[in-house]
Amino acid sequence: MTLGATWSICAYSLAFLSLWLVLVFIRRAYLHPLSCFPGPRLAAWTPLYKAYYEAIKGGQWVHHVDKLHEAYGDVVRVGPNELHFNDYRVYHKIFSISGQFTKDPSFYSCFGVGMSTFGLMDPEQARLSRELMSTYFSRRAVLQLESVIQSKVDKLIQLLSSRENPSDMFYAFRCATMDIITTYCFQSPLGCLDSDNFKAPLLTDIQTAVSLLWTMKSFPWIIPVIPFLPTYLGGRLQEQCQAFLNVQSFVNTAISVVQQNAALQDTRKVLQGIAGVFDCLLERFPSLGAARLFHEGLSLIQAGSDPVANTCIVGFFHVLRNPSIHSRLKKELQAAFPGPNAKPGWTELERIPYLTAILKESLRMSHGFVSPLPRVVGPLGAELAGHQIPPKTIVSISAVSVHNHRDLFPEPHRFRPERWLESKDLSQHLVAFSKGPRMCLGLNMAWAELYAFFGTMFLKLDMVLVDASPDDYADFHDYFIPIHTGKNLHIQVTQSS
Ligand code: HEM
């Protein structure tokens, strides 16, 4: 081919590409069914607008969306085919049990767990998977697991009491919650709590890998290229990828052990007579493939550990910072469980309204997952906030918009457990576990753990905050879960009973 012909092909290709881009821009900006909604022009043109705040600016999307609502009102077009809402009534519609809204695959695929209960998009497949898994996370199942949960909380108490230096609770709580979920899933106690200064390698790997999430979502093509990048360009990404591979390798090994034991028909009962989730799954469904088990395992260890630990961190910080809340909680616990040998259980702790109010306020202020959870409108379209929304539109709203709504929660940034005692109706607006057919599957386990951590630790320990300031919890990066930008919470045990 001559040089002239090559130039012509390049020129035609460039002209064709430019024309195509112009047509895409015109369609998205003026002819698209969402073009009547306000929002930044760039967001209407390209999903890279959102990707910039997620991946390049690093977990800033949920904060940026706030600013967009201030500028454009309660409904904003935040992507070529996506609307974001700032109206708590819309939250209840999108996440209602009878809603025709499904999870958005372009968002959820980045978790790499498409065959798990969390990752399944098809509503019928997800329903069947939830039905199968709910056996292990029902209230009845979790009541049986209570002694296991309590043993990890007791171990944490003993470790905190024996330390002369302040403890980093970001890792300490995660060690306990990770030990609980891995023990229950795989029957192999991981022993995070035994790690030096609570810095268990699995937990540090998860923290390193977490910021890879938005890169994987918006630029998945970069992942196979990362190992070949020079260190000065891709060093941080290589570290994140390696950490992610380590987490995957942990789950793979745990699943292999479960499979080997199933093959040997060795039904282990290390959990004080309770069978592990994956042992049971394989016993009931021997044909479940390794990939399905791997996806379920990877999603469960993350869904089951970080949000419980985050709720504890935010709650402990606020309780320890407010002497009147702290002393009322302690007095109520001491009245309900007198004597040094008292063993508070989940059902007894639930009967202390002030403790429940503290847990709800901690959940509200830690939010659960902070990213706006995107849902796809069903084939019939939907009516949201007075607008007719076309089928297949992606609609999203963050729990943060509901939890910080001043009409529902006056002074939203103030930790005020009393608000839950003053109004019983308020509980419907606690959306940390989400709502509807895809709400948290591990809700019973989460409540049981929260009652055990707060109930036992505030009863048995005298604790003080070390070098903590409200600024530490004023801001967070949105990596699906909130990662607070301030210092990790450190506490010192001053006395234990
Ligand atoms: C305070 C603790 C927890 C909070 C705030 C929380 C919050 C949530 C939220 C908001 C969702 C919906 C996510 C979405 O739609 O994308 C969810 C889903 C889920 N959670 Fe939790 N969670 C907690 C603890 C747990 C625990 C302990 C487990 C159990 C191991 C668990 C397992 C799951 C699973 C499997 C799903 C997926 C359900 C589905 O998609 O149908 N979570 N959780």
Kindly describe this structure.
There is one protein chain. This protein is of the alpha+beta class and 497 residues long. It has a single domain, classed as Cytochrome P450 (Cytochrome p450). 54% of the residues lie in helices and 9% in strands. It has 21 helices and 12 strands. A hairpin with a 2-residue loop joins strand 1 (75-79) and strand 2. Helix 9 runs antiparallel to helix 15 and helix 12 packs across helix 13.
Output the keywords.
five-stranded mixed β-sheet; Cytochrome p450; three-stranded antiparallel β-sheet; 12 strands; binds protoporphyrin IX containing FE; Cytochrome_P450_monoxygenase; transmembrane; iron ion binding
Helix and strand arrangement:
Layout: H1 3-31, H2 41-45, H3 48-56, H4 61-72, E1 75-79, E2 82-85, H5 88-94, E3 102-103, H6 105-108, H7 123-137, H8 139-162, E4 167-168, H9 169-186, H10 201-209, H11 213-218, H12 231-263, H13 277-284, H14 290-303, H15 306-321, H16 323-336, H17 346-349, H18 353-366, E5 375-376, E6 382-384, E7 387-389, E8 394-396, H19 399-403, H20 418-422, H21 443-460, E9 461-465, E10 476-479, E11 481-484, E12 490-496
Parallel strand pairs: 2-8
Antiparallel strand pairs: 1-2, 3-5, 4-12, 5-8, 6-7, 9-12, 10-11
Helix pairs in contact: 8-9, 8-21, 9-14, 9-15, 10-12, 12-13, 12-14, 15-18, 15-21
The structure holds protoporphyrin IX containing FE.
